[in-house]
Amino acid sequence: MKSAMIFRLLMLAGGLALALLPSFAQAAPPVERVFRIEASSFAYKPGQIQLNLGDRVTLELVSMDVVHGLYLDGYDLSLTADPGQTARLTFVADRAGSFRFRCNVTCGAMHPFMIGKLTVGPNHSFTLAAGLTISAIAIFLLIHPRRASQ
């Protein structure tokens, strides 16, 4: 019985440590990053970009078919690329969070659905979720211990 209680307490401590670890982890130092984004047929490739806070970022927008644009929400930045041309924009990722980028040049019927995502900061969601799940299970086991079969 005592070993089961110790196991549950260790499980709780481990789960909480796993959940809180990301908040104490140091972020990677800022670096120069260049992303080539191809715009065509109402989509961006890549459609998602992950950055660290403080990175100096250059976006290279290449239009593969018609005139396309890219507007980055939250940063109020925009650029436009003509077919076969590359437009460049450089900025410092100084705001953490997830930001949409979308085409700001009407390029056809599906234009409103031409959206991408830029995430600034480390992605700790999985670690946080795993730690909280383990902690919840441990708390449940502490509150409702199994009774010995009679």
What does it look like?
- The two termini are 15 Å apart.
- 28% of the residues lie in helices and 35% in strands.
- Strands 3-9-8-5-6 form a 5-stranded mixed beta sheet, with no helix packed on it. Strands 2-1-4-7 form a 4-stranded mixed beta sheet, with no helix packed on it.
- With 150 residues, it is α+β, with helices and mostly antiparallel strands.
- The chain folds into 2 domains: 2-25 and 127-143, no CATH class; 32-122, Immunoglobulin-like (Sandwich).
- It contains 2 helices and 9 strands, in the order αβββββββββα.
- The chain has helices at residues 2-24, 125-143; strands at residues 32-40, 43-45, 48-51, 56-63, 68-72, 77-81, 86-92, 97-102, 115-120.
- The relative contact order is 0.24.
Element layout with pairings:
Blueprint: H1 2-24, E1 32-40, E2 43-45, E3 48-51, E4 56-63, E5 68-72, E6 77-81, E7 86-92, E8 97-102, E9 115-120, H2 125-143
Parallel strand pairs: 1-4, 3-9
Antiparallel strand pairs: 1-2, 4-7, 5-6, 5-8, 8-9
Short note summarizing the structure:
The protein folds into 2 domains: 2-25 and 127-143, no CATH class; 32-122, Immunoglobulin-like, CATH 2.60.40.420.
**Helix-and-strand structural type:** alpha+beta
Beta fraction: 35-45%
Strand tally, please? Answer: 9
CATH topology of the largest domain: Immunoglobulin-like
Domain count: the total is: 2
Helicity level:
25-40%
Q: What is the level 1 CATH name of the largest domain? A: Mainly Beta
Radius of gyration over C-alpha positions, nearest whole angstrom: 23 Å
How far the N terminus sits from the C terminus, by CA atoms, comes to 15 Å
For the biggest sheet, the summary is: 5 strands, mixed
